[in-house]
């Protein structure tokens, strides 16, 4: 919970009444490895924070799984489009490790944003950060060579390679497992 509070405060420090109302709506969850938080075709009703564990967000394309995002400890995650548009998601949110999570329901968050301008400001900063990360990821896939994407991943998340199957890492980097093996052998 301390890391969660530090991340929130780094984005925007809520005044005490808004902070208490906001924190009250986050529900703790524990799920085993393999649990699906969101199934394809379902609406994403929650914004999540993984306190401990590892989350994979992926979709199906041409009979294969494509890893869109990996959320390790102390990360926020959700299916953005489904959450905001209230439409069925094409994404699947799957736990790669036993995980301890916090979750806030869409309706509770929207109500808090209406009630507290400060919560709305915090949420706007969370979404802005998420959009920036998404654009960085897209630019990386479009403009950086595979080796650089791999090195960036190692720099950002040094323990991820020990925690995530290489097939998922390759998919996340937008490369084949063979290319990933060659890049790893060069090091």
Description:
The chain has 187 residues and is an alpha+beta fold. The chain folds into two domains: 142 residues, Sandwich (Jelly Rolls), CATH 2.60.120; 43 residues, no CATH class. Helices cover 51% and strands 24% of the residues. It contains nine helices and eight strands. The chain has a four-stranded antiparallel sheet. It has a four-stranded antiparallel sheet with strand order 2-7-4-5. Helix 4 packs across helix 5.
N-to-C series of helices and strands: HHEEEEEEHEEHHHHHH
Alpha-beta classification:
alpha+beta
Architecture per CATH nomenclature, i.e. the level-2 architecture of the largest domain: Sandwich
In DSSP terms (H or I, runs of 4 or more residues), the helix count works out at 9
Radius of gyration from the alpha-carbon trace, in angstroms = 17 Å
β-sheet strand percentage: 15-25%
Which stretches are low in confidence, meaning pLDDT under 50 for 5 or more residues running? none
Largest sheet: 4 strands, antiparallel
Say what the CATH topology of the largest domain is: Jelly Rolls
- Overall helicity: 40-55%
Strand order of the largest sheet: 1-8-3-6
Q: What would you give as the CATH superfamily of the largest domain?
A: Jelly Rolls
First-last Cα distance: 37 Å
CATH C-level class of the largest domain is: Mainly Beta
Question: pLDDT average, as an integer?
Answer: 96
Count the E strands.
8
Spatial shape: globular
Number of domains: 2
């Amino acid at each position: 919970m301390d890391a969660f509070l530090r991340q929130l405060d780094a984005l925007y420090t809520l005044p005490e009444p808004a902070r208490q109302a906001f924190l009250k709506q986050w529900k703790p969850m524990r799920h085993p490895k393999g649990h699906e938080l969101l199934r394809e075709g379902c609406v994403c009703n929650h914004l999540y924070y993984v306190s401990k564990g590892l989350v994979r967000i992926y979709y199906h394309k041409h009979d294969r799984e494509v890893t869109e995002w990996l959320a390790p400890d102390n990360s926020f995650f959700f299916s953005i489009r489904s959450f905001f548009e209230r439409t069925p998601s094409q994404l699947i949110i799957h736990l790669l490790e036993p995980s301890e999570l916090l979750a806030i329901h869409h309706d509770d968050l929207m109500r808090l944003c209406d009630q507290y301008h400060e919560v709305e400001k915090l949420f706007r900063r969370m979404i802005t950060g998420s959009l920036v990360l998404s654009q960085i990821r897209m630019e990386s896939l479009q403009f950086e060579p595979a080796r650089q994407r791999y090195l960036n991943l190692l720099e950002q998340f040094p323990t991820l390679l020990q925690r995530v199957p290489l097939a998922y890492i390759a998919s996340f980097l937008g490369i084949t497992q063979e290319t990933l093996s060659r890049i790893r052998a060069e090091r």
